[in-house]
Amino acid sequence: MKHLYLAAVALLVLGVSLSAAEESVVFEERFDKTLGDGWTWLRENPETWRIADGALEIRVEPGLAGTVRNALLREAPDRSKGTFAIEVTITFTTPPTKQFEQAGLTWYKGGKPAFKLVHELIKGETYIIPGKVATSTKTVQLRLTVTKDRYTAAFRPDAKGEFQTAATGALPPADKEQISIQCYNGPPDAEHWIRFDDFRILRLPES
């Protein structure tokens, strides 16, 4: 028992919280030359995505949630077995101009989009959706935390500082769940590209 206490004190002295120390990486994608195993494309357009400088870049094409091009999906973690967080850092390489132009994470149930955590342009201003929290940076890190029956949508401007909660809500159990990186509602007459960096799925300690 004394050894456990001393280990905890050592972590705190080093500036590492106990909860952070207990997080474990389930999957990590660095976008280094090729995609890792387990990804599938939905309505792929090979001409409008690329891996460059350690990031995935996707052109924001016209479309809606149900017709999005180049949605990159993988199996979601089994939230009946614990609490998980999905993270990705996204950057507007060109300022968004079209109403509802957006990029981020989308949760799929049975092959259909169920809800999203995105950086979105609405009436000339950018917001984190859900929650409609105003933003002022072109880069945000998104974190979607899921449990067996709840979700928490959070973000960090410029991927710095503490995560800010944008919204929480119910997430009933479902079969065939997937998580997607995607962007849509882009302008038809201009090339806007989104950079996706540092995708991770983490298992979080139980509270």
SSE blueprint:
Layout (H helix, E strand, L loop, with lengths): L1 H12 L4 H5 L1 E6 L10 E3 L6 E4 L2 E5 L11 E5 L7 E10 L9 E8 L2 E11 L2 E5 L3 E2 L4 E8 L3 E8 L6 E7 L6 E8 L8 E12 L3
Keyphrases for this structure?
49% strand, 15 strands, 2 helices, Jelly Rolls, mainly beta, globular, disordered N terminus, eight-stranded antiparallel β-sheet, 207 residues
Give a written overview of the molecule.
This protein has a single domain (24-204), classed as Sandwich (Jelly Rolls), CATH 2.60.120. The two termini are 20 Å apart. The protein is built from 2 helices and 15 strands. It has helices at 2-13, 18-22, and strands at 24-29, 40-42, 49-52, 55-59, 71-75, 83-92, 102-109, 112-122, 125-129, 133-134, 139-146, 150-157, 164-170, 177-184, 193-204. The chain is globular and about 45 Å long. It is mostly beta strands.
Compose a concise summary of this entry:
The chain is 8% helix and 49% strand.
Show unreliable segments. 1-19
- Which structural category do the helix and sheet elements fall into? mainly beta
The CATH topology annotation reads as: Jelly Rolls
The tally of beta strands, per DSSP, is: 15
Question: Radius of gyration over alpha carbons?
Answer: 18 Å
Q: What composes the largest sheet?
A: 8 strands, antiparallel
First-residue to last-residue Cα separation: 20 Å
Domains, number:
1
Helix content: under 10%
| Strand residue content | over 45%
The average pLDDT value, as a whole number, equals 91
SSE topology string: HHEEEEEEEEEEEEEEE
Per CATH, the class reads Mainly Beta
**SS summary, helix count:** 2
CATH architecture: Sandwich
Shape: globular
